[in-house]
Amino acid sequence: MAESSQGFAHFLAQTDAVGLCVLAILTAMSFLSWYLIVVKLWRTVVIRVRSRAFIADFRRVHHLVDAERLQIATGGNNPFARLLGEGFQACQSLRETDGTRKTEGPGFEVASPDDYVSAALAHGVAREASRMESGMTSLASIASTAPFVGLFGTVWGIFHALQGIASSAQASLDKVAGPVGEALIMTACGLFVSIPALLAYNAFTRLNRNLIGELERFAHSVFGLLGLGLAMGGATPGESQVVELSTVTGRADGAKAKAEGAR
To answer: Rounded to two decimals, what is the model's pTM?
Structure first.
């Protein structure tokens, strides 16, 4: 009968305010981690669906006007559309400032429009990467600290149990094993909170890294479309239709050199 009274409920009844506080912290961390997992998983699915639809439409684009209409129609509801919007905005800024750049005073003159557009696209990729990092720090913190919080609860529970045993002057094995075993429940709770957060963090890190790579490949296609007016298609996940930035820049420089020679 004495053994049947041991368990988690008995541990909660015997623990003090510190143990209950540790358990409350672990419960809050667990709710937060699962909330982040569900929200980020839902966002990832939505982004994937919208991005695949946008890329499929972008691959059928053959003119800048069509690409601009596609970007406006999507309303920037996915990272690829927002990146294309960054390219159009950079080109618009160049057209507005063409011939009106200051040659004196603070600031500097852009040596090559290609560099300006490339920097704008790189900034767009970096901004999307920052968006995808939302919530990752919390998952990493929970995954790394939850086991130690549970371990602290275990140490405190063992200390509290040993104090009770000492006060009762009964140090037999059955009197020690029960309270100590109950205190180890806190370590198990810490692992229960940490493992899902760690697995989710690793999974989302891989998904974010793959998406950033796809955005970088798509940026090359956008650069070629804006610079040469050629529709090279978007790089869908798992495909490698990529035009290197150096190749596009070399073609543009060659075209400029031929135009100057013709003059």
So the answer is: 0.73
